[in-house]
Amino acid sequence: MGLTAPSDPPASEQFILDRIGGPKGFVYSTIPVVVFVTANLFLPLIATTCTAVTVAVALTVFRLLGGERSTSAAGGLIGVAVAAGIVMFTGSAKNYFVVGIWACFAGFVLTFVSVLARWPVTGIIWSFLHGGKHRWRSNPAVLRAHTIATLAAAVVLGSRFVVQEWLYLANHTSALGLTRVAMGMPLSVLVILVVVWAFRRSRHHLIVEH
Hints:
Elements: H1 11-19, H2 22-40, H3 45-65, H4 70-90, H5 98-116, H6 121-129, H7 140-169, H8 173-182, H9 185-208
Helix pairs in contact: 2-3, 2-4, 2-8, 3-4, 5-7, 7-8, 7-9
């Protein structure tokens, strides 16, 4: 299917990449997780949580000073702050991951149901980015491409939920952190490659050919 990212992504693909912070955004998102899991091995829960939040704040400042979008830079900090608040409220380190786990479940339901309804999410996003001017669902090749891309997202989100929920119920906090990292950036990159391919197919069939 030629799932290779273009060297110069067109506007819609670049929009998606910008909103997730690009390749560096994946790396930045894993650092607070690694810090939290490592600190939890040696420090009391309060100190562990404060350490993770401090690192997240420092990363946000660093990213803002580096010229990144405030939404991309601050998004990670908000996520860490919410996770830290839940940990402090419940007194359980494993709850640092609970929001992410159920976000994966919600994402899985959304993407899978959209495929069943023949309104795949990636197609809706592509159409929105192009002003809703193209009848993308009427083109079999385009609809098929977005079905594949959305299913890829559903598989990744579903697998993350199943594995992490099992570790959560088994109280394996350190394994949860390692799994979050291992199933994070590598699988996200694969999904993005498929989505970029679907976006390029859409542009080819609905814009270039017309």
